[in-house]
Amino acid sequence: MVASFSSIFSSSLQRVRTCILPVLLTAVVVGAVNALPAALLPQQTEGGTDAASVLEAILQGDEAQIEAMVEQAEETEDAPPLTAEEGVIAAALMILSIIVSIFGGFYLMIVIAEGYSDPAAGLRRLPSLLLPIAGTTFWMFIVSYIWVPLLPAVGLLLWDGVQYGQPTPTAIGVAVLLFFVSAVVALVRMPRLFFAPIILVREKTGITESVRLSEQRTRGYWSKIVLNNLAFAIIGFIVMMLLFAILGSLFVALAFAGQMGAVAGSFVMVLGQLLINAWNQAFHVELALTIFDNPRE
Fold first, then answer.
1. Which 3-state string (H, E, C) describes 186-216?
2. Which of 50, 116, 165, 224 is deepest in the core (most CB within 10 A)?
3. pLDDT tens string 200-247
4. Distance (Å, rounded) from C-alpha 67 to C-alpha 57?
């Protein structure tokens, strides 16, 4: 019997707890790399307001003090334009951030899918799975046929842009319609392809075979996949809103705290996003397992 949403939800939390060490290490590494631009590049020509003072003023509701701090922050000069050397550093840090984020996402997928509690176990499999996971994601896009209405939409906008300097209202209208068609195709096709990377990692199948098996094993489960993902998305959104509400005062304080505040704020934001992402992946794994254990003919 296919597990209920509450059972899948509970199992996903247990899976995250099992994998908590590699998940936290990934979050720390990716968060630190994403915070590097704020740490190494100039943010302001003057120091910011002390974060503790701002947080205390917010918690005490001292409007006069908060207003004074806002005025002080507005008077602080913006960072000067980047020099050529700083521009190169900024570009290199951006590329590094993208690469580390991609590697971190793939590493999390491996760790969560296999339920590894040892960080080294996921690292050992990462090199051999990088290209297959990327290829599986690309093949999912191809066989979902999302690109079929997208290509003429983009082509039409580009053609009108070249011919008339900007897309005409007619071209924009047709493109919007084609984008809508693409969204409908994605809604119909993608849910049954979701689990291809999980099959690839757990069963060591090939790229095309993983996608084929995902579509085959989810026959008759489209509505369950969509509704379970919708329910999880709603809960995840509520959790994120509560988290940001709780940490809201801290973020405001960090915004006033100059360069180190920007570093801390960037780190905390990425950390939270990766933890939510790990939870989402764990939910997909548990949903996949219960569906695979109960095939429909």
1. HHHHHHHHCCHHHHHHHHCCCHHHHHHHHHH
2. 116
3. 999 999 999 999 999 999 999 999 999 999 999 999 888 878 877 766
4. 10
For the record, the structure tokens of 107 come out as 């590493």
- Residues 6 or more apart in contact with residue 118 via CB below 8 angstroms: 21, 22
At 173, the amino acid letter reads: G
From first CA to last CA, the distance across the chain in angstroms is 14
Q: Is residue 176 over pLDDT 60?
A: yes
> pTM of the full predicted structure?
0.77
* Residue 90 near residue 37 (C-beta atoms within 8 A): yes
Backbone angles phi, psi at 194, to 5 degrees: -50, -35
- Provide the β-strand partners of residue 44: 78
Q: Find, among 3, 8, 82, the residue nearest to 235 by Cα.
A: 8
| Span 17-55, pLDDT tens digits | 999 999 999 988 988 888 777 666 655 444 444 444 555
DSSP 154: H
Mean pLDDT for 85-102 is: 85
201 closest CA partner among 132, 256, 102: 132
Query: For 255-261, what is the mean pLDDT?
Result: 53
| Alpha helices (H) along the chain | 5-18, 20-40, 51-60, 63-75, 84-114, 119-144, 147-164, 169-189, 196-203, 207-217, 222-255, 258-292
Query: Which of 223, 201, 237, 238 is CA-nearest to residue 5?
Result: 223
Alpha-carbon span 252 to 48, nearest angstrom: 12
